[in-house]
Amino acid sequence: MMFGLKSVAAVPAAPAGGNPEPAVAAVPARPAAAPPADRHEALIRSETFKTIRATVFASMNMSAALMKTREQVRAGIEEIAAETALRERLDVTPAEQTLIVDEILNDMFGVGPIEPLLADESVTDILVNGPDQVYAERHGRLELTSLKFRDNTHVINVAQRIAAAVGRRVDESSPMVDARLADGSRVNVVLPPIAIRGASISIRKFSKRNITLGRMAQQGNLSPGMVAALKVASACRLNIVISGGTGSGKTTLLNALSHYIDEHERIVTIEDAAELQLQQPHVVSLETRPENTEGLGGVSQRDLVRNALRMRPDRIILGETRGPEAFDVLQAMNTGHDGSMTTVHANTPRDAITRLESMVMMANGNLPLLSIRRQIASAVHLILQVERMRDGVRRVTRITEVAGMEGDVIITQDLFAFRYDASAFQEDVKGTFESSSMRPVFATRAAYYGLEDALVEAMRP
Known about the structure:
- The chain is of the alpha/beta class.
- The chain has helices at 37-44, 47-58, 62-65, 70-87, 94-109, 115-119, 152-165, 213-218, 224-235, 250-257, 301-308, 325-333, 349-363, 369-379, 443-448, 452-459; strands spanning 123-129, 133-138, 141-144, 176-180, 186-190, 200-204, 240-244, 267-271, 283-287, 315-318, 341-345, 382-388, 394-406, 409-420, 431-435.
- Helix 2 packs across helix 4 (70-87), helix 11 (301-308) runs parallel beside helix 12 (325-333) and helix 12 crosses helix 13 (349-363).
- The radius of gyration is 28 Å and the shape is elongated.
């Protein structure tokens, strides 16, 4: 028996004297075909599964087992499962026995039945709505999977294990939490009584592949000219705001842009849940902390932005601006921290400016609107609008430059835009990325960095 497992009752020996009886088969000789979805659901909710699972957990030293790898523990669980099936004369096929072992291992080392979805690189979102509904997003489209949890308690146990792994707690007194998995995937959990139809788990996965602007151009997310312009913008240390809806690909674009930051620069990242995957060697990552049950100990994004200014950063990258920290971000952009980047939720570049105005007012309601607009016009150079379109493809639909102020109005100009072809209505969205051919206001800045010719070439239609 492997280390970490207690002894399990041995198989009954052959009777004394005479010829020994042939060994009893551990499983009936039924076809070993993989069970269909309904059989899978029936199996994990059956008494057979409960019996084997209870025996496994009763026979294991959990502390010792969890110090080992998944494959090391698998051998011991398979042995216990086979002995239990033999001793209790359970009617399970080899395929079902393998499925039971996998489910137990997923409970011990992973996130239960949705562990296969985490390993599937084509899945970008996993949405659990109670024990009976598990949705997955592939290529921008949601689909209902055949995976099930045993019951609502099983969903809650998985959610609590996820939260505990990052020092958070989620229960009836604190029914909502944001957390992350070991691979960086972002998790949101809502438990009953807030979630009426059972516990909800929402997981936003991040690609293990290193997404670059070049790869995004190959996928049709933006044009080669836009890639060239964004390379110049990042190298020129422009302050960039990425705007878009939920799941539109803002963080992915932010990661791709970060590839063009000089490796000698000191970067400070600030996030609610660590999602950014910067490749530079000199990166300091900060993460917020929620208040405890007594309402103490919380560290907000605004606190971290203020502290980051004392850390001698060359650039500050804020994962998402959603509140009063917008005031401090604009202050940082205006005080020598050029090349800073952030994301906001907005439907258009003009809406992004309006949202920034509103968030600054949340921090300081006494500031005149004209003063706020002047700060935005001075701090923000580019706004990139990202959209997940109806065909599931995420596209950079506009690259908009903030050109300054005219009176009390912020002036913007579109450098690039995606023009949808309404005459070719199909499941796939048809259209073209068009350059305005205008000379950007930041061309003078590009000349300072020796990149004016590259910018002019990128703007050619």
